[in-house]
Batch of 2 targets.
Target 1
Amino acid sequence: MKTPLVIERRFFYYVFMSYRLSDSGSSGDIELAAENESLEGLFADAARGLTEIIVDISDLRSDRRISLEVDGENLEELFFNWLSEIIYLKDVDNFLLKDCRVSFSDGQKRSLKGDLEGDDIDPDRQNLKIDVKAVTLYNLKVEKKDNHWHGEVVFDL
Amino acid sequence: MNSGDFKRITENMWEIPVSFKDGMRVPARILSSGKLIDSVDDKVIDQITNVACLPGITNYALCMPDGHMGYGFPIGGVAAFALDEGIISPGGIGFDINCGMRLLRTNLTLDDIRPRQEKLLSRLFATIPSGVGSKGFLKLSRPDFNQVMEKGSHWCRESGYATESDIEHTEDGGRIDGADHKAVSEKAVSRGIIQMGTLGSGNHYLEVEIASPENIYDPEIAGHYGLDRDNQVLIAIHCGSRGFGHQIATDYLQAFSRSVRRYKLEVRDRELMAAPINSEEGRRYFAAMASAANSAFVNRQLITFGVRRAFREVFGLDDEALGIETIYDVAHNIAKMEKYTIDGREMTLLIHRKGATRSFGPGRPEIPQVYRDIGQPVIVGGSMETGSALLCGTNTADRETFGSTLHGAGRVMSRMKAKKSTRGENVRERMKKSGILVKTKHMAGLAEEAGFAYKDLDAVVEAVHDIGISRKVARFYPVLNIKG
């Protein structure tokens, strides 16, 4: 029963992918801009976009599941901390995120729970591209415009 | 940038006056050759003049000839802060704390390695872990890692991974004083402890290079540094503190974002978050930053250990016959306490160097005795297609730039543009035709690091030579390259 779920998610990913990767002002690094109707979706899109910098996300399996909780003093800090956690899991747990569900734990949106699924790093069956080492504060934004949530972030590579 | 707006101090130095921007406490100085000055990005000007607004900054904010846009400071930014009223900022050091270069000499020549070059490349690639997810060969305990943080390369010597000569030929003997493992988060430790002895990815590399006679510009100094035969084989290592340094920068950017209000510090860029040097937060960041700097010295030392092993295996020679010795190891991203004479008074200042190399001239007590009469070696990295340069520190740098010079060629093309311009396989073939063999885990990364994505190394080296903040000694060309 697992396979259809994965296919459906891949389909979802390709058709409705709502992040864009581009050159940051600093020519060595990459900027991610994401947009989603919901804040939960924005955070999930940004996490998938982060993975896409590191690896062809379609090469990843959904063998592993990790849940985590993240806090921040404000929405931007929460966004920064969330993405920093994804990088941390890559370095320490050898984990690459393929997909995730995000739910906010409070009305203030200062803490969230992430249910992640993904894969071990395996250069033999994955097209690994470049390592992402940190989230920067440069141009970091999370804002609501025209009924959509927008997020921008630059990663240090 | 239109250089006509600024005051030309010397042939290769422009000054931006304090009237340029509200809040500037000192002028900013851009070092550049006449040819390069008009290509300096406006964002670099904005960033270096933001640095000039920081409390306690002394004399001027400086940008080296290889300067380009960074976060907070430009890359190539140098600034000195008075200890009593100055600040310390992760944005003035960089995420990859003590990213740096090490240069090793050998007794081998090009003729010795050509017949075994493919075997050597494969052996080095297998011995030095690189790329996403790579882990070091050491299984360090937590007490061991505390020693790595606080003792730096001295831990390597005690553990059999370094020689006495390696320690002597490393900036600050491979240990920055003031490191304290208690200032480092558990998260940073868990990222760092598994990555010691790994190259990383991006623009990090290990290269086997050749010093051919026509590229030795100053034979006397070159000989003093250990270049003593034609077509000598050298090894250049470019890497830093890996995820450990990045996590420390992340942790303290956040901590400073909270404390900046308490200290009423006005910063014009979130990446310039800072704390007073003498505050609790400032002292803790310095201790954590020094811990990361020490781990980076250890990282390059462990890679050196691996290089020696790989050469022994391939050539069947012992260490004495191979003669693999450290010429020098320099930090590119760091903050250090150093003494300078300001207005006739000797002062200890906290020097931030971000994408800049220390360039101490003759007589400075901080450099090894063996180099003290001539000045320290300065190792400058180019792209993987262009090799490296070796320069010598000068007293002009001590006077003009807080003992600092350039660190590398600097990118001119973004990764994405480079990747659109060519394919990794094409770069590998082009390099092969030029006599350079390359091995990597990430083929797309080769395109991103192609030679055309970087400034002309010779032009920036020529600029610092003309300015006098370091002297050209030699230029090396690659024959084997492991790209992280």
Target 2
Amino acid sequence: MKAKPHVSTVRETLPRTARIEPKSRRSDFPILATRLDLHYLDSAATSQKPSAVLDAMRQYYENDNANPHRGAYELSARATQRYQDARERVADFLGVIDAPTLIFTRGTTEAINLVATAWGRSTLRKGDEILITGMEHHANFVPWQQLALVTGAKLRICELTSDGRIDLEQYRKLLRSKTKVAAFSHVSNALGTINPVRELVALVQEHSPHAITVCDGAQSAPHMRVQFGELGVDFFAFSGHKMLGPMGIGGLVGKRELLEQMAPYQMGGDMIDFVGDDRTTWNVLPHKFEAGTPNVADAVGLAAACDYLDGIGMDAIRSHELVLLEMIINRLSAVEGVRIYGPMDLAQRSGVVSFTVEGIHPHDLSTVLDQDGVCIRAGHHCAQPLMRRLDVPATARASVYLYNEPADVDALVRGVERAKVMFR
Amino acid sequence: MSNLEALYQEVILDHNRKPRNFREMENADRRVEGRNPLCGDELTLWLRLDGNRVSDISFKGSGCAVSKSSASLMTSTVKGKTVDETMTLFDRFHDMITGKLPEADRASMGSLAALGGVSRFPIRVKCASLAWHALKSALEGEGNSVSTEHEGPPQTEGA
């Protein structure tokens, strides 16, 4: 029998002034407003979209659509302006002062691949080292693994503590002078662990002064206040679709001196300055890394998502999620046979709960819950190296966002109980 | 019968709790590994052939109730059958779980009919078919691993 874990209370974790009763925002989200039976608990995979975002995109296509940076006509100039405004809005949201250092990409995956390819391939040599952690999503794992294979560098993986945090003692030991990349997630998608980014950056700077730091922010930017300058990392990658924006847009924020040094990794229109028959010069930031027609409508949608999130306030969102997180952890821990993974200190966990139920495979659990409209994720969460370390083939994962309510938690727990009866 | 009851029939739950032929096999003629990367299902299938007949078959692995019970029911059913009979059964089973076999014909599937409810859950087709794809691959002597990633409706891993 496992000992009942100590769960720090929301009151211990929240700022004193924080609002504690969850407020309903379902009506802002068309899919949740129309499908009242839906208990969407898979926002760590992708978030639902508020009307404000959908309206902004429609408004762009209906009023301002043209190919930006191209036509010498008023409509194209307006599209260009909308795209620039969107970049500045998103940059502001993430505390990026130098907006052209925010490169729009398809999402986190493309952003990390951009760094691994454009910076990594030209910089890393045999004998260099790349340090990642055992909790990374495949998007922050495979690009580095493959970069190591191509360049002859060595990939090192920092192990985790038993409650799913980075083992800082080992992390310090793995940092050497030949470490050239230290890549880590801000928040683990599978466990919800919030990593101490500033502490990691300080360790890297102290022990591996030649290393760049790359932060996978896919799970942090949507759920907490993120200020790029305060984190101290060299690169920060994020996805729009997890923060109420549309699928297909996200970005990479990087320090200007590094982005300036890097050669582009995709070639084509927009990213050029002069194209001769036998040579080409590159456009300035951010265009150097945005080959082809830009994704204006999705950028406009993402900017609208930033407006929506700031309208509520990231601290209020975090507080709302903590209330629900505490409910989920307390109520699931009370169910016989449930095991919860990751840190039990709420201050170190975002609104993600990975768990298993003894005798029920997560995939079966997910199917049972689905019959009651409860959407959770079951599987390896694109983190097979982590699953090996936890020694489970798969877990079930419930994750919350600002539109979730206590009724969603009720439905989750009811479904788990129902599955237990079924698989008894 | 609700969709859920159709999927998790008592036969399925029983084979999930007590899978038959759930053991490793020494001196097997064929050994194949099957994976369903989407949900982490993994199984190893062992096969012994006596001429053109499946004389022994067993499996081990971890997976959901659908994949485990399907493997268990499959091994129970094909033991003693010829290779041709088994291949025909593969096609009929596949038709059944993808909803192409008329309901009236399900009775002819014997105990495998318990997996007919899978046809109402297209996402779970790859779970039910994992063991069968491994078996087909073993009989055809092609490679030593199969994946059902591309079975059923297209799905990505998600995040």
